Amino acid sequence: MPKIDITDVVLRDAHQSLIATRMRTEDMLPACEKLDAAGYWSLECWGGATYDACIRFLKEDPWERLRKLREALPDTRTQMLLRGQNLLGYRHYADDVVRAFVLKAAENGMDVFRIFDALNDIRNMRTAIEATKEAGKHAQGAICYTVSPVHTIEGFVELARGLADMGCDSLCIKDMAGLLTPYATEALVRAIKAEVDLPLQLHSHSTSGLAAMCHLKAIEAGAERVDTAISSWAGGTSHPPTESLVAGLRGTGFDTGMDLELLQEIGMYFYEVRKKYHQFESEYTGVDTRVQVNQIPGGMISNLANQLKEQNALNRMQEVMEEIPRVRKDLGYPPLVTPTSQIVGTQAVINVLTGERYSTITNEVKIYLQGGYGRAPGPVNEELRRKAVGSQEVIEGRPADLLPPELDKLREEIGDLAGSDEDVLTYAMFPEVGRQFLEQRKAGALQPEPLEPPPGNGPQEAAPTEFNIVLHGESYHVKITGAGHKGQPERHFYLTVDGVPEEVLVETLDEVVLTGGAEGAVSKAIAGRRPKPTKEGHVTTSMPGSIVEVLVKEGDVIEAGQPVLITEAMKMETEVQAPISGTVTAVYVQKGDAVNPDEVLVEIEP
Questions:
Q1: What is the CA radius of gyration of the chain?
Q2: What residues does 77 pair with on adjacent strands?
Q3: 498 has which bridge partners?
Q4: pTM of the model
Q5: Which of 541, 502, 508 is nearest to 550 (CA)?
Q6: Contact 2, 221 (CB under 8 A)
Q7: What is the pLDDT of residues 570-587, one digit of tens each?
Q8: Contact 143/120 with Cβ under 8 angstroms?
Q9: 257: Cβ–Cβ under 8 A, 6 or more apart, which residues?
Q10: How far apart are CA 308 and CA 142, in angstroms?
Q11: DSSP 8-state symbol, 280
Q12: CA–CA separation, 466 vs 495, rounded Å?
């Protein structure tokens, strides 16, 4: 019996699953000495959504986080999650960007690259695997586990063979939704181990309550490594607890050899840290056995809940959960993992809220159906494909083969704001948010979102300003939790609306005193409220979001069905088309504006 190795995910996937990836570097570093001494095979600490959260919410440089963690963990492998050709973003990048990103991650301290593709199209993993090997680092090929009429054990074994042939150093079964059952795990692990002579690791979320049993079955069937989370950040949509597995295997042939007493100290440290982030806790991160029926990951459910809450349509969650499997079938049964979970989920929400399936189709669904993300696991709905892409040619090869080198172009676009290659890559991953982060850093105006004090702690005068507002007949509870520095041309305000964290960017005209004593500013947008839609030529959006591009101007003569706007919601883009032919008589939005369904964005007169 081999010793079992453990990867702890407390520094990445655990807090991504439980508190929307909000743990700050300052709360990781004090635990690193003990984490480094505990005997882990690796510590997952980067990648996934951490990069986005660092620059969007925490106002931290993710590369600086990596360097600090590397220094603080001299004796333990660092590990990251990489989305193959998507890297850490939501589109495919040209090969030169993929290679540059992997090289820089390696140079800054990354040891193990867990590489996956949302469609299990290993053609999309090849460049990242090659770059990892060229950098002299450990390439772990991950297989996204899911259940559907087109997914079989034989198919997963074939994927494992393909990843081994590409030069992977180890393999991982990535059960992101917690769909595995104990005996399915045993059968899959035995089948892969019988065909591929590489170390095999199991990554399974505890959403359904079965992951710990799956761990044991995987170990008995020959898996050498498993992912766990320190107990204070374990369970539910996170992972099985580290201490429990170490105790369960103690004194057996699978003994991990880890220091259980030291792990208890680490768990207590992070128990206290978790209290600091109480505002991000969600009712949707516990055990949810519905995943075994609807196959929807818990993290995806919490995102959908927030989206529907913004629409004042939380009561329609059940309809959306019933629509998701239908959309997934139409798209050929993709595994529900980033970015396909967002692609499927957002389209399902639109289908439900508009009342007509696929009356609005997101750009990402169009790209997916054209083959822009790779090969769908199963046959797609051809009628939907024709509606989405028309006569455009479907991509049959590796999508990235159609992308010209783009690193030099990105470097030119961001210009002097980028002080390093790492900064260029930050802009590449998230152009709008990345540019804003670099601009704020240059201006010395980086301001992380505030953390609410624990309930009942601290003096009363330190409590955030709270009030209720009524908008369109609906009541909302608003709590102002912080604000950026005064005197800036643009100032950030942080608040929660019915408990959901929000950030508002305000262009300052005059300093005023708001009701309740909170200092604030008057926004230009307040004076120009958008009208309500009343006629056919009024262009609206189907869901709250922001404007990515304005494609028309006043005076333009356009045809019905012509794109006039591109909006973004839940990180997915949607083309808004003209409902009638005519002349554009008014445009009420510009790039970056927040928009809602009950507003006129563009007016067209026939």
A1: 24
A2: 42
A3: none
A4: 0.84
A5: 541
A6: no
A7: 667 888 889 999 999 999
A8: yes
A9: 3, 39
A10: 32
A11: G
A12: 9
